[in-house]
Amino acid sequence: PVPWLAPDPLAGLTWPAPTMITEVMELRAYQSGGEWWLGQRSVSSGEVIQPALGPLAAGGFTTRPLDSLGGSTGSLPDVRQLILVFRLANGDSVTRSLSFSPGGWP
Length: 106
Description:
The protein contains no helices and 5 strands. It has 106 residues and is mainly beta.
């Protein structure tokens, strides 16, 4: 081995081994054909935005930040859960929850 290089972190693994692959993604609202959509794209591959959910109703995206006790908070360091609500143009809605550990807010 070359002495100034870090050791290979994969050298001690046996295969098959559990593997986690991550990819940086962008989510954003965009307008197409007069309708609003939630779109996604891979930042690392540089692809164009693709529809993920929609079309959205007017005012069809809201967030609700919660603290560790489940109460509403406006203080970013206190956010432990983020409730995302998407309202679709057809009247349906989708709700998702993201949880963060203390100090885990991005």
